[in-house]
Amino acid sequence: MATATSSDDEMSIGLPRRQLGRPPQHLLTTLLGDYWLDTERMLPSAALVHLVGEFDVTPVAVRAALARLQRRGLLSSEKRGRNTFYGLTEPARRTLRHGAQRIVSFGRDTEAWDGMWTVVAFSLPETRRNIRHVVRRRLRWFGFAPLYDGLWVSPRAKPEETRDELVALDVDSASVMRATELPAGEELRPLLSAWDLDALRTEYDDFLGEHEPLLDDVRLGRIGAADALLRRTTLMDAYRRFPSLDPELPDSLMPVDWPRQRTTETFVEIYDSLGALAAVRVRQVVAQFADELTPFVQHHTVQQMVHGWPDP
Fold first, then answer.
1. CATH of domain 117-179
2. Tell me, what's the pLDDT at 93?
3. Is beta strand 117-122 parallel, antiparallel or unpaired with respect to 151-154?
4. Neighbour tally for 189: CB within 10 Å
5. Cα distances (angstroms) measured from residue 106 to each of 150, 248, 260, 290
6. Coil, strand, or helix at residue 81?
7. For residue 139, which phi and psi values (nearest 5 degrees)?
8. pTM (two decimals)
9. What is the DSSP code (8-state) at residue 127?
10. What are the pLDDT digits (tens) for 180-229?
């Protein structure tokens, strides 16, 4: 089973923020998380430059991204002669494993909702305004959304985990509650309005519009190794947003044609089907610079990540 990371680990290693397009820092963390998570060995920088170059990123941009990820604590490096080698740090591996497990577990919760909401109320003084974005980011990661400023709600978040997270962030002016919702009627605001469901449906529709047409090619084996790497990485980058956008809002609250299950099924089939082919392409790239490292390139299926990884 993957080891859950602490907030200290995640804050200290400084995972790159999501941006539009394919920023090289984000590509590097996705690729290393998908194919280089089970080993402490280091890859030559030239291999990483070439690998990210598959996505039309320039060598200068990749090397700058490597340096930034090292400063963030995600990567360690060492010099061997004239060559530089990079590897994931142990906190980074824990964080990436925990994050991957959360991403691929999304949409698989079959437990009936008990009708209870977890509610967090907090207040941070001006002297601590620098931590506000960290608290909000972590609450979103746990499945919360802001109903009002300083009042966040979630139908799925576990109150004990939420409390422990706030304590770890040293937020003492906060309260965690469990509550039921009275019918809002036309006069009051329903708790579900904390999420913009129209915008969320658009995100789902966009994902399906881009990736669902690939299913036929995947099923008929019409995808080559290089294309598999591009497609699988793009798929993961697109899908990983949904646990923060939609914290598995209960089916009983959603429209009957809500596209979450269809999206999850599309992701799982493409991601798992292209894994072996994509790993072949990564090995081909690594072999050009360090053939002895190719056996350590591994991919994982959704089922493996949900239930944990073998020990490195």
1. 3.30.70
2. 93
3. antiparallel
4. 10
5. 26, 7, 9, 36
6. coil
7. -65, -40
8. 0.82
9. G
10. 999 878 788 999 999 999 999 999 999 999 999 999 999 999 999 999 99
